[in-house]
Task: structure prediction
Amino acid sequence: MMSAIISHFMTSLEQESLEIARGLKQRDPDLLDQLIERYQYRLLRYLVSLVGGRETAEDLFQETWIRVLEKGRQYNGKTKFDAWLFAIARHLVIDLMRKKKVTSLEDSTPIDKQTPFDIQSAELSPFEMTASHEEAGRLAAALDHLGAFHREVLVLRFQEEMTLEEMSLVTGAPVSTVKSRLYRSLEALRNSLEGNNDATKRS
Amino acid sequence: MPQNAHERARGLIDTLCIEEVPRGELAWLNSHLETCGSCAEHLAKAERIVKALRSVRIKTEETLVRRTQLNVRLHACQMREHLDQVRLLWTSCVMSLAMTVVTTWFLWQASEWLARWWGQGWLWQFAFLTFGFLPSVAAITTWVWQRPSFADHVGFKEGVE
Result:
C-alpha cells in the first residue's frame, strides 16, 4: 500500500517536472510567475547561505529567474526542477565571486557582512522564545563564520532536505564528494558552535 | 571502553545526520549509547544542531517577488521582439538569395547577348560579375566591421601590440 502511494507520488512529481519543462520551452509567463512565487523562500534562503547577505542575494534572485527564462529550453524535466534551479543560482554566485577574484566557494567569505537569517519563533512560551532566540543567534553567528562552501551543503541537506544525489546535481560534484563535504561542514559547525559557547562562558 | 568504540560511535552519529545507517550498526550504536554518557551527549548535540539548522528562517518580501516577476516578463517581451527581428532578417536573406539565384541567370543571358551584339564579350562579363557581387561584398565587409565583438577584438589586439 505504502509503495503504491510512494509510486503514485513519484509519478506525479515526474509529471509536474515535465509540465514545467514544457512551459519553460514555451516561455510561458504565467508559469514563470507561479514558479517565482513557489520557490521564492527556498531560493532566497539558498542564495543568502551562499553569499552571506541579503542585498546581493536579492539581486541574484532576480538574475536567477532571468537566467531560467533564457535557458528554460535546456530543462528537460528528467530531473527535479528545484535541483536545476539551484544549480543555476550556484553558477551565478560563482560568476559573481570570480568577478571579486575569489577562486571557489571554499575560499569565500561572506560578500555582504550583514547577518542574513532572521529568527523565527512559532507559538512558544516567553522562556522558550528567549532560549530559541539565543540558540538561533548562536547558530546564525556560527554559520556566519563558516565559508559558503560549508553553509551550502548544510542548507541543501538540512533545510532543503535534498538527497545526496540531488545535492550532487546542484553542486556538480560526485556523491562521494558531497558526502565528505557534509561531514566536514558538520564538524566545522560543531567546532564553531563550541568556540562560541566557550567565548560566551568566558564573558 | 576502548577508544575506537567511541570513535566508531561518533562516526555513526555523524553518518546518521547525513544518510541511513545499516540496522546492524544502528543496533550496536544503541547498545553503546546505553553505557556511554559522552557519546550520548555527542548524539544530543548533533540532534540539537540539526534541529536548529532546520529551524533557521528567512523573511521574504512581496516587493521582491513582484519586482522579479515584472523584470522576467519585461525580459521575455524583449526576447520575443529580438526573435521577431531575427526571423525577419533571416526571411529577408533567404528571399534575397532566392531572387538572386533566379534573376542571375536572366541577367547573365542578357549581358551575354549584349556582349555578342557589341562584340566585347569579356568586358560585359567582367562588368556583370563586378557589379553583381560588389554590393554583397560591401555589405558583408560593413557588417563584419560593425560587429562589436570583432571590432573590439581587433582593437584589443592592436592595444596589446
